[in-house]
Amino acid sequence: MREALIASLCLLGLPLLLAGCSPFTLLNGADGDARRVAEGVPYGSLPAQRLDVYAPPGAAGAPVVVFFYGGSWRNGSRGDYAFVGAALAGRGIVTMVADYRRYPEAVYPAFVADSAQAVAWALAHAGDYGGDPRRVFVAGHSAGAYNAAMVALDARWLRACGRDPSELAGWVGMAGPYEFLPLTSRALQQVFPYPDTPADTQPLAHVSADAPPTLLLAGRADTTVDPRRNTDGLAAALGRAGVPVRLIDYPRLGHGMLVGALARPLRWRAPVLDDLAAHVQAAPAPSGEAAGGAVLPCSDTGFPQ
Question: What's the fold here for domain 2-282?
């Protein structure tokens, strides 16, 4: 219980008189028999284009989740989110936790292009780790949910890598910013084009009937990304377009705790892991044959051709 309390306080950003207090140190523990089976696998040629793979023992034909972490497109690393990979792998899901280029090394749309390339790589290599290439999902939290949404909803990015969102079994957004114009935050102005920010930088602008099935998760106590404007707004738009969409609310969860609740010490806070894993496991594969072939090189500048 002490471990859970410390992790909760760290995620809430409360100061503690503890040397090296880090939520990631506490959350990244063992999770049953799930394990990291590959570390630092390159999905592209750039240093930031690496991912770690987590899998249950003897995985064969398992669903696959490609996960992107948040951090305002500035912070984070795949190692910090080992708890996400272990949690999902512990539920029978092959999970790939991917890095991507961030500010100040890169600005929009480099991180979207990286995310698309990671997903394209997963579609091509899911079977190498016991995954089913016809049951690949893209998921993310916060800024990572934005990346996931753009890959799933704006077909240009995957098509630039020789793939298409129709190959995805679905996508999952956790506390994502899906509509945030005009840019009033100085931090966002540095990351996205400003002052003439194109409307097509917003996931909401790409909603269509062709979008993959969607699961949206939101903490109603989130004061970082407004769930009403973002999650509710996107869910409503997808529903109007006829896309299968499910929205799950957690009344007492804030922004960080929504992803933190995937970790073993914090699962008592809300059934986020149960809901996410059940959705992925139950979702059918898209119709048609899985596309084979290698991943086409994506533009390092980030703009699809």
Answer: Rossmann fold (3.40.50)
